[in-house]
Backbone:
């Protein structure tokens, strides 16, 4: 009989009608390190957000020390001794380390309302020593490196008397030495009786740290067990473990020989380094990489949302190095961003207004710049029906009322009206249910069949295997490998991305 | 390494822009006219900066949260109207001043309610209460020009025969503001909230309460400034307090407070800012610059300050950007090394 500090019992959660957690039951033993792994969208973050009080759950229950536990907000979770160290840290950069520790409850001078700076400093120093961070508690957080900030977060968790500490991808921005330091710290916290939940894509780290491993896939727990029951291969296969083929439409066309987009020695300090590839007309080229591998940043540079330091971007045979989004649109490049809600759609505008946005200049009268309504209306109606966008009236309904899949189809439709010759899609199926995914793949397939070149960025390897002609693997801002369709091999690609080829 | 050091220099310059500007302008005016650098003139500058300076203190609280208060000029007018009318109908000075300050602070509470509870954006709320506040003032005074009795004209009176009352009040307000911002939970939480509202909520801060309080403080400061202004001018006219919001915001921003929140301080920041504006005004008079040109010059300086602020914020953001590539990590090690090492060193 184990001593469980935390138990999830049949937790269910849906977002906008999409089930992201299905009857999830997990027991977390006290004083252990539990590794939580799964592909993007498997539900790891949602489960941890529920634990951390960031989002509520729909049904089921959580037991903390045997007591029913349902935090209303992060502050309540913190009071119960749960610290959530997010991938994007939650520190106030403009304040000192000490102030960050005590921001919700400062030590006071006796009974006065005034902060006692000395006592605050002393207490902060104690916790900094516990994490072996040798900086003054008066240092402003903005002056610290990402690794030091991470340690500050851990120290803050300790200062709030945390019993369970959740780490979400803590090493993505750390150097190797900082990572080692963090791991030593995690080991020590464990020996002091803290319970750790460790989420990471870097499976080696999980194997090194965890006592127990929980694998989530599509919102379900597919495998749990002691560390010794796992190796990298079994971890990957249980994370992925789904049959390919039926989920993806058949590729009907072949890529052409003409090059639509060529990238030569493209670099930007600290972001990407020496990127070389060419994209052919009619080709679907996948870019696979983990979060923070530089894939989205590369797409933004190509589209002109960011600058590059050196190298060349050649569009349809002519060098186009000084890029802006407007120029890209004029060169018929389309970009479906990974952030649909904030960057891809005007949520409160109608579906039709959203779709007309990019192609509007095509529907202007040659004089006076007035929009020719009827051809535009016709084109929008046509696109709505050909993409099977489920909307009762595209001219009245707001974009925010649509499901994720339909929203994504609106974004695609917006670009299709401009008949792109190069289409860049970044995580086009994130937060989209399986049925809509299939439709989105079909749309992308058709675009390629018509001769457009497609750059398909995703952190879901399977969809890339299913729809792409070639897959380019990125990591650490570099291209780590290129695989053609004949060479497609899930394990090898993952190993390349995880840099575990040497195993 | 080179661009890094360049940035550091630039950052240093941008961070201390107000003090650098202050010194440069002071020196150049002094070169033009030796009487400019006199103690007497300096006192004069502070004296005429006191009322807007007090407003700028409250404004700094608001700007630190990332908000804005455009209604401060109207609050000045409401307070002024109440004080002047009560004095006119024979009430005692202390009671009149108290009621005036209460009225102004209540107007600030109204802002606070609309912004923090009803959740309308600060710009629209205070633009609305600016218009409505002026309307109330005009209504109760019937837009008359009201002179106040001599006892109310204490603006030139010196405490212990040394320092004029407006400067003393200004200095006291500065001290209280500095202590609140630096040494109370409320003050530090304002900075936290201005840095990242979402993170503040996650850290369990009561952002609604914090937001409400800064607008109440701003209203209170505007009301106190109104009383100081009456004591100096000796009357309340229909244009009383007009345009002060611009000067107050400009003073804060010139003093290094960011319009995006989270950055700035009352001392030396805002105090330098308001003295800078007043010094420019004063210096332009000394230099006999055309009266009509003066407003333009002043506005240009203020726009320059806002420009610098935008640059600074953008630069800080760029410097803080997280790098994906960790150039230090030697992951392209020679092949002779053990593979283990190559990957996880």
Residues:
């Amino acid at each position: 009989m184990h001593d469980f500090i935390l138990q999830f019992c049949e937790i269910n959660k849906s977002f906008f009608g999409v089930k992201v957690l299905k009857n999830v039951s997990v027991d977390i033993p006290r004083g252990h390190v539990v590794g939580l792994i799964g592909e993007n969208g498997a539900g790891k973050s949602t489960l941890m957000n529920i634990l951390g009080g960031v989002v509520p759950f729909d049904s089921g229950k959580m037991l903390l020390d045997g007591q029913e536990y349902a935090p209303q907000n992060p502050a309540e979770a913190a009071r119960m001794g749960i610290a959530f160290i997010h991938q994007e840290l939650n520190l106030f950069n403009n304040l000192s380390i000490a102030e960050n520790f005590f921001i919700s409850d400062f030590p006071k001078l006796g009974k006065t309302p005034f902060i006692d700076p000395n006592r605050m400093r002393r207490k902060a120093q104690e916790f900094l020593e516990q994490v072996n961070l040798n900086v003054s508690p008066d240092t402003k957080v903005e002056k610290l490196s990402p690794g030091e900030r991470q340690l500050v977060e851990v120290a803050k968790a300790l200062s709030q008397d945390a019993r369970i500490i959740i780490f979400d991808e803590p090493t993505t921005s750390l150097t190797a030495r900082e990572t080692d330091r963090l791991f030593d710290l995690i080991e020590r916290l464990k020996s002091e009786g803290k319970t750790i939940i460790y989420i990471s894509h870097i499976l080696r780290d999980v194997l090194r740290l965890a006592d127990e491993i929980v694998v989530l896939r599509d919102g379900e727990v597919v495998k749990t067990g002691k560390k010794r029951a796992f190796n990298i291969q079994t971890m990957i296969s249980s994370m992925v473990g789904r049959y390919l083929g039926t989920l993806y439409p058949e590729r009907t066309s072949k890529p052409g020989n003409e090059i639509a987009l060529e990238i030569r020695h493209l670099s930007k300090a600290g972001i990407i380094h020496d990127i070389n590839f060419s994209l052919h007309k009619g080709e679907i080229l996948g870019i696979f990489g983990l979060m923070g591998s530089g894939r989205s940043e590369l797409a933004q540079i190509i589209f002109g949302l960011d600058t590059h330091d050196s190298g060349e971007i050649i569009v349809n045979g002519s060098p186009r190095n000084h890029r802006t989004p407007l120029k890209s649109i004029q060169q018929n490049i389309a970009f479906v961003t990974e952030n649909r809600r904030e960057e891809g759609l005007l949520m409160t505008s109608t579906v039709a207004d959203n779709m007309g946005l990019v192609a509007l200049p095509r529907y202007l009268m040659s004089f006076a710049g007035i929009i020719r309504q009827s051809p535009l209306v016709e084109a929008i109606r046509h696109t709505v029906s050909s993409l099977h966008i489920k909307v009762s009236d595209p001219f009245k309904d707001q974009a925010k009322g649509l499901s994720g899949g339909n929203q994504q189809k609106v974004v695609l439709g917006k670009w299709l009206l401009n008949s792109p010759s190069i289409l860049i899609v970044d995580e086009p199926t994130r937060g989209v249910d399986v049925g809509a995914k299939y439709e989105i793949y079909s749309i992308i397939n058709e675009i390629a069949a018509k001769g457009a070149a497609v750059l398909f960025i995703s952190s879901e390897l399977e969809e890339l295997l299913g729809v792409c002609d070639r897959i380019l693997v990125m990591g650490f801002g570099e291209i780590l490998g290129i695989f053609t369709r004949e060479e497609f091999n899930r394990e090898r690609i993952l190993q390349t991305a995880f840099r575990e080829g040497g195993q | 390494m080179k661009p890094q050091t360049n940035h550091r220099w630039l950052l240093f310059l941008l961070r201390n822009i107000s003090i650098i500007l202050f010194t440069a302008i002071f020196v150049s005016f002094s070169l033009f006219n030796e009487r400019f650098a006199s103690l007497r003139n300096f006192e004069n500058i502070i004296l005429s900066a006191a009322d807007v300076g007090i407003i700028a203190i409250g404004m700094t609280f608001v700007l630190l949260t990332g908000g804005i208060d455009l209604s401060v000029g109207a609050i000045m007018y409401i307070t002024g109207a109440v004080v002047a009318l009560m004095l006119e109908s024979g009430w005692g000075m202390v009671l009149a001043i108290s009621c005036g300050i209460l009225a102004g602070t209540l107007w600030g509470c109204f802002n606070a309610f609309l912004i923090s509870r009803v959740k309308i954006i600060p710009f629209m709320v205070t633009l609305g209460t600016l218009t409505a506040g002026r309307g109330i003032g005009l209504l109760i005074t019937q837009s008359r020009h009201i002179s106040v009795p001599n006892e109310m004209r204490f603006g030139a009176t010196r405490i212990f025969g040394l320092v004029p009352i407006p400067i003393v009040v200004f200095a006291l307000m500065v001290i209280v503001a500095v202590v609140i911002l630096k040494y109370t939970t409320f003050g530090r939480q304002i900075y936290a909230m201005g840095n990242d509202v979402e993170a503040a909520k996650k850290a369990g801060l009561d952002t609604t309460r914090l937001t409400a309080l800064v607008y109440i403080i701003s209203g209170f400061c505007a009301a106190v400034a109104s009383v100081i202004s009456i004591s100096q001018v000796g009357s309340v006219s229909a244009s009383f307090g007009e345009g002060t919001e611009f000067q107050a915001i400009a003073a804060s921003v010139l003093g290094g407070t960011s319009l995006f929140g989270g950055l700035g301080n009352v001392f030396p920041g805002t105090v330098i800012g308001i003295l800078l504006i007043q010094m420019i005004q004063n210096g332009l008079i000394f230099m006999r610059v055309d009266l009509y040109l003066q407003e333009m010059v002043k506005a240009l300086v203020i726009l320059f300050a806002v420009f610098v602020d935008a640059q600074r914020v953008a630069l800080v953001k760029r410097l803080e950007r997280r790098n994906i590539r960790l150039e230090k990590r030697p992951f392209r090690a020679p092949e002779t090394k053990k593979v283990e090492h190559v990957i996880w060193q």
Observations:
- Chain B touches chain A at residues 179, 183-185, 188-189, 191-192, 194-196, 199-205, 262-263, 316, 320-329, 331, 339-340, 342-345 (CB under 8 Å).
- The CA atoms of residues 22 and 341 of chain B lie 56 Å apart.
- Residues 8-322 of chain B form a domain with the ABC transporter involved in vitamin B12 uptake, BtuC fold (CATH 1.10.3470).
- The longest helix of chain B spans residues 291-320.
